[in-house]
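Q: I have two molecules that I believe assemble together. Could you output structure tokens for the complex as a whole instead of separate predictions?
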Amino acid sequence: MRYLHKIFAVIAKDVVAELRTREMLSSMFVFSLLVILIFNFAFDLRAENQRTLAPGVLWVAIAFAGMLGLSRSFIMEKDRGSMEGLLLTPVDRSAIYLGKMLGNVLFITVVEIIILPIFVVLFNLSAADIPWLLGVMLLGTIGFAGVGTLFSAMAIHTRAREVLLPVLLFPVVIPVMLAAVKLTAAILDRLAFDEVQNWFSLLVAFDLIFMALAFILFDYVMEE
Amino acid sequence: MTKSDLLTAILLALAGLLMLGAVVLVFGVAPDPANLQTPVERYSQRIFYFHVPTWWVGFLAFIVSAGAGVLYLITRHERWDVISLSSVEIGVAFTTMGLITGSIWAKPTWNTWWTWDPRLTTAAIGWLMYIGYLMLRGAIDNPERRARFAAVFAIVAFLSVPINFMAIRWWRTIHPVVIGAGSADAQGDFTLGPTIRMVFFYCLFTFTVFYFALMSLRARTEWLTRRVEHLKQQVIFR
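A: Yes, here they are, computed for all two components at once.
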């Protein structure tokens, strides 16, 4: 129970810091909206291919917006000099990881909840799909943030800082993205669950593996 | 001449001899696959003896780098970092060759250099992942931290490699699967007779020996580079 409190304290700290400025959430939201709009004229979306492109557009928007949030997550600590403070607190490093990761999942999910209705309207989709889409988005976001938080903590110590994060993260989270895109497409196409069950298993398996691995490896990244 | 120099020399000589044998076997002994009709297909098929072993070496190199990464995090001995780095460098070189040889084969067989087939795409992504590893190393100044982060990245990166390869089995891929059950959509697929199989496994073995020869050379160079650097520091700051 104490451990949960510590995780919660890290999340609460990030949420309070974000609520004071709201700069990260707003820029993530505007950016993801921009990505969706840019895709619209980049692909010259026409009525017949809208549906086939929708899942890919949605996930690229989420991935790009998520990347913004992830790279801020530790740069914020470092620039304000609060990293040392965070590391000096008497909590296990894994609690810091889980707190940071869940905070990132929370921020990205908030952006997703705002962007999804707009997306449904822009792509002329059925509003009944929203709850299912949100479920898939949450699973995808957990995998994305699970390994993204670990890499974000590494990227701040490099010379290129946030520039390096996408280069490291995108290839590694490709399986999560793929499975999420497939499931999103299945929801939009009203496929039976049996047809995409292996993608669902892949997504859940990757979420668990990435989280477990990042949970173990975070200690080694934060060692100083 | 130290013991490890001797080992390197023996491995290199062995790899060279085996490689000569491979050339003879591939062009002199291996028959044409029974089910390939056109001469172009039959000629280009022989790249298979080179293409598959390069991917195998790439794969092996990435396993070694992940294993060395784990050992580095546990023991903190610089030796494992040297091995991990050397292995990734060799792996990237070989997967680059794999991508190029694949393209060369694809042009006559599929009539295109590149296609967005899942197998090709996941292979290219895996290759980019290890380019990322080298970029990560290049962007960190502190050697201890560089080794630590590289080990962490090598472990995470390797984890998604086998599952990437599993995921493609759920797709319809046009890439031939020679070992195991192939996809019904595969184009340019061929069957392995006993002689072809023998030559193929000989080539795999040859490339594996070649990998170890390169590894011992590269690791030794890296180790010496670091020693020179260390000695330089000692002289300057004495």
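A: One point stands out. Chain B has a mean pLDDT of 86.
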